[in-house]
Amino acid sequence: MLDKYPITGRSLERFYPIQGDQFERAYKQHLSGFTVWAEASHAQEWLLFPENMGPHLSIDETSLSRGELYTIISNKEAHGGKGTIVAIIKGTKIEDVVNVLKKLSTLERLSVKEVTMDFSDSMQAIVETIFPKAMITLDRFHVQQLCSNAMQEVRVRIVREARKAEIQYREDHAFKLQRRLAHRKKDKTDKRGRKPNRKNEAYKPERLENGDTVIELLTRSRYLLMTSSDNWTDSQKIRAKLLFERFPEMETAYGLTHSLRMIFSNKEATKESAAESLKKWYNKVTDYDNDAFNTVSATIYQREDEVLNYFVYRSTNASAESLNAKIKSFRAQLRGVIDVNFFLYRLSLLYA
Questions:
Q1: Which residues pair with 91 in a beta bridge?
Q2: pTM higher than 0.85 for the full model?
Q3: Phi and psi (nearest 5°) for 190?
Q4: Neighbours of 261 (CB within 10 A)
Q5: Alpha carbon distance 351, 328 (integer Å)
Q6: Angle at CA 162, nearest 5°, toward 161 and 164?
Q7: Would you tell me how many other CB atoms lie within 10 Å of the CB of residue 23?
Q8: Domains in the chain and their CATH numbers?
Q9: Helices in the chain by DSSP H: which ranges?
Q10: pLDDT digit string (tens) for 128-177?
Q11: Could you give the C-alpha distances from 220 to 231, 235, 285, in angstroms and in order?
């Protein structure tokens, strides 16, 4: 069972009358093939599974133990199951990864049609060296994330400015109270004139029609800004309306983020039509003239062809991210990795 599923011996205690830790030790030392594993001598440095090669690969990095990064190459066609892992290589240094991947035959390396990845320059160099005929596709979700981060930068800046303004309002409020108290008549029995302010009268921030203060409006809008307006609830629509009326810059930032998302979501788009849409998006960013969005625009422009390669096979790096999540979940079940070799052995059984 431990050969087939990413579970621990302790998790079996609920179903079988066993001591989980003892069973796991027995599995490691006697029941599994770990003690005679042929790859054990170099497992912590590299593992290679040429039989899992395919035309469409992904490359990503993950942490196995104590923040130690490993480069993982996976086969998309295995869909995160057995046969997914092509290589696990310690570190992200270009030379180290390239030296291991050169152990693959030339025919295997030249047969790769596409490799998906994030914006990592080192991964780009690895792929260009090892898979010279492969088309590099930058993950669309990483592209969209860049834009979403820029939008959140705008929101956080506006929140910061709103907090400064509120602090100033509170200070002005306290100052006015002190001035009024200083000018009050000494005769406290005199009831003429307006009712005097209490000495400890609290500052009351402006409440909008949905009950939010300005800062609450900005803070609570974080989630709705990350989703399409088609998916907003009624309360989110009201909050968005108030946000965009009060802060037109947020509407501009949201519009740019949403329009980029729509370019990738268009199922009928081709690489050529998407390129035209992207040019219009660049112009909108130029008109907005915001540093965060200008940086995103420049980043996409520099690697535009690789971004647009998404429209050839509609491939993303989701399979690599999914494998990464499975590895992290397995590691969490183990409550940390003590024996890295044994952990890699189990990964190879499960996903290689």
A1: 70
A2: yes
A3: -75, 115
A4: 18
A5: 14
A6: 65
A7: 18
A8: 33-139+316-351 (3.30.420), 141-180+202-308 (no CATH)
A9: 20-26, 94-101, 106-110, 121-130, 140-182, 214-220, 222-225, 234-246, 248-265, 271-288, 291-302, 304-308, 310-313, 318-333, 340-351
A10: 999 999 999 999 999 999 999 999 999 999 999 999 988 887 777 677 77
A11: 16, 11, 25
DSSP for 315-330 reads --SHHHHHHHHHHHHH
Residue bearing tokens 């009624």: 234
Give, to the nearest 10 degrees, the angle between helix 248-265 and helix 271-288. Answer: 170
DSSP β-bridge partners for residue 62: 70
**Contact predicate 75/54, CB 8 Å:** yes
φ, ψ dihedrals at 223, nearest 5°:
-70, -45
Residue 50 in tokens: 């040429």
| Structure tokens, 306 | 């690789």
Structure tokens at 171: 């200070």
* 215/158 Cα distance (integer angstroms): 9
Predicted local confidence at residue 334, as pLDDT: 85
Tokens of 23: 């069973």
Residue with tokens 């990503």: 60
Q: What is the pLDDT of residues 54-91, one digit of tens each?
A: 999 999 999 888 888 999 999 999 988 899 999 999 99
Are the beta carbons of 59 and 87 closer than 8 angstroms?
Answer: no
Structure-token match 């240094």, residue found: 93
What residues pair up with 61 in beta bridges, in sequence order? Answer: 71
Cα Rg of the chain (Å, integer): 29
3-state secondary structure at position 12: helix
- Do residues 192 and 140 touch, judged by C-beta distance below 8 A? no
For residues 64, 68, 73, 74, the Cα torsion angle rounded to the nearest 10 degrees is: 20
Q: Which two tokens stand for residue 108?
A: 């295997």
Read off the tokens for 227: 């989703």
**Cα 327–chain centre separation:** 16
CA dihedral sign, ordered 115, 117, 119, 122: negative
Name the pairing type of β-strands 114-117 and 56-65.
Answer: parallel
